[in-house]
Amino acid sequence: MTRRRRWAMAAITLLVVLGGCSALSPSADAPATDTITPVPVPSATDSAGTTPTAAAPTVRSDLDSFPGVSARTGIDVERLLSAHVAYLSTRSYTVEWARWTAGGTQSVADRFERRVEVADDGTYLRRDRGVGSRNVTTTYVGPEGAYRRVVTDEKTVVTPVSVRDDDPARERFAHLVAFEVSAFLRSGYDELDVVERGGRRYARVFATRAPPELAQIYDAYALRNFTATLWIAPEGYVQAVHYEFDLVGTERSFSVEWRYAYTEVGETTVDRPPWAPTDGTTRTPADATIDGPPPELTLTPGPTQSPDPSRGSRPAVSNATDPG
């Protein structure tokens, strides 16, 4: 099995685990289908804290300046993925991704966020949390070793952990969007243009055709209202991906939304956190307390534009379930 195919399979596994496929199975005791509305999404902001506005698309000939993109022939998916991994594999960066679900109950009516700061191939800091939950899991990997801290309402525990070493960290986390890039673009797209933000141009891809892989993952539901937008940076890496869809079942319906963003490319640094021991010990502080809620994860998905209902955005529906 080739490395790229292996990463694609790993990405599909991530969707299955984080998407909560088992939790999405219809319940015989469930009431009638809920009415749902689009999941609220934080506004993208620039470094000054203002919401950027994308400029009008430039001439299509500018597309030729992006690796793997051509105004005449469209997108070469293999070349784009190669450029994406090659560029990020030699630089530090921060990758953030989040999943929102709404319209259901219990474990699938939630939000999940992850942030990974990748300094080099052997040093990174990963933070996972579910919004609405005080449980936070942080993993540090560095020259001193690898440690994981789990913070709950009851206690804080720090333990040594083993880490995979078959692929360098920068390459491994660069592959996080491999499934989305490959599946979405191979299924076809509706628009391909260039937008500008802060003096930088991005190739923007907009698609409304759901890849068959998603339907297979959520086979207990009808998948509808799929939309996806990808932003490609001038250097050739996929700076951000945003996609959403509805899952319609006989007894329950859900809205699902995902966002990925690569930021601070070439500028990310990671220091050993003070809670990570250097002697390989396990620490369970007797007086452990939660050190406040983690900072809000703010995704910056490139030069995003306001939703346009004519291009597949979902209409608002009343009586929605608050995702929390």
Automatic annotation (TrEMBL):
Residues 42-58 have a biased composition (Low complexity). It comes from the Archaea. Residues 34-59, 269-324 are annotated as: Disordered. InterPro entries: DUF7537 (IPR055959). This is Outer membrane lipoprotein-sorting protein. It comes from Halosimplex aquaticum.
